[in-house]
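Long-time lurker. I teach an intro course on protein structure, and each term I like to show students one example going from raw sequence to a predicted 3D structure in token notation. This year I'd like something fresh instead of my usual example. Would anyone be willing to generate the tokens for the chain below so I can use it in lecture? Attribution to the forum is fine with me.
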Amino acid sequence: MSDIGYRIFRKINRPAKDLVQGFAGIPVANIADCMSRLACIDARLRPLNDAPLLGTAFTIKTRPGDNLLTHKALEMAEPGDVLVIAAQGQLVNAIMGELMITWAQHRGIQGIIIDGAIRDVAALRKMTIPVYAAGVTPNGPYKDGPGEINVPVSCGGIAIKPGDILVGDADSVVVIDPQDAPKILEDAREVQRKEEEFHRQVLDGTWDRRWVDKAIAAKGCEYAD
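-- Reply from a regular --
Happy to contribute to a lecture. Here you go:
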């Protein structure tokens, strides 16, 4: 019988820590604007608390409602990793709750992203480890498998590979291929600089809005009284 669907890959290629840390404090929206606005996880997955997320993807593909491989991932992941759990969006059973996430934080894991359900949400809202999930249910998980660790997954409608850089805030999580990261980081810093300048102009009333009428005219829009 094939072992496809029940495999654990021990090694992943993680990007340099200074490259990952370069994205600290940059809003997800600014980064996404540098990636044709196609690199964020689906809005179904919402943050459970206000903790910012920054780290590298450690992926788990699991059968819906089962967390056996997620338990194994908790022991394998390294400090700085973010657990990305592809549970096919099923919300009948929670994949994890307060105890597992507390253990993840103890081990230096920098965040949890679940395309599935979570539980113990009142406790999670007070925690300092970022958690994103598609929903909440008190129903616990099964522990039967199968599943895979450190394979490419689809989570929140986005393909995520082990080692991808993940940046999250109150809006969403953006997924960055490490090969593209240096250029994206440079562009995102420039976008952030421009946003700060626009914000200053908004506050002092000098924001130039003439581009709106120019854009409308270029599209051939007609006015009627």
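Some talking points for your students: Helices lie at 17-21, 28-33, 68-76, 98-106, 121-124, 181-204, 210-218. The CA atoms of residues 66 and 142 lie 5 Å apart.
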